Amino acid sequence: MNVRHAAALAFVGWYLMAPPQKYRGDTPLVGRKFDAPLNQWKIAKAFDEAQDCERERNEDRAFGLMWEQCIATDDPRLKGKPSGSRHRRKPNGY
User: Fold this and answer.
1) pLDDT along the chain (94 residues), means of 10
2) How many angstroms separate the CA atoms of 22 and 24, rounded?
3) pLDDT tens digits for 72-82?
4) Which pLDDT does position 20 carry in this prediction?
């Protein structure tokens, strides 16, 4: 591992994230959208260390928050476009 790579790893933080809530129109429902792309999940808290994030996640599980996940701040899925948003070419003449 070179020095630049090690330095880049040192700056990685962690997010405690939860999937977005399901809605019917403007009305929130009880369930969560577990299949939502990661870039649509909500950031509950941010941490400098992975073990701090995991500790908080485990504490939250005691209160029934089973769906939270610890995700590295540099995870490429956080930057991706939501599925279904791909650009499609229009037919010629349109």
Assistant:
1) 52 93 88 91 96 95 88 92 37 37
2) 7
3) 999 999 986 44
4) 93
Q: What is the pLDDT of residue 88?
A: 33
CA angle (16, 74, 42) in 5-degree steps = 35
**C-alpha span between 80 and 3 (Å, rounded):** 28
Residue 25 per-residue DSSP state: T
Contacts of 75-83 spanning 24+ positions with Cβ under 8 A: 75/38, 77/37, 77/38, 77/39, 78/15, 78/38, 78/39, 79/39, 80/37, 80/38, 80/39, 81/39, 82/36, 82/37, 82/39, 82/40, 83/37
Locate the domains of the chain by residue range. 3-78
pTM of the full predicted structure?
0.67
Element (H, E) at 59: helix 50-61
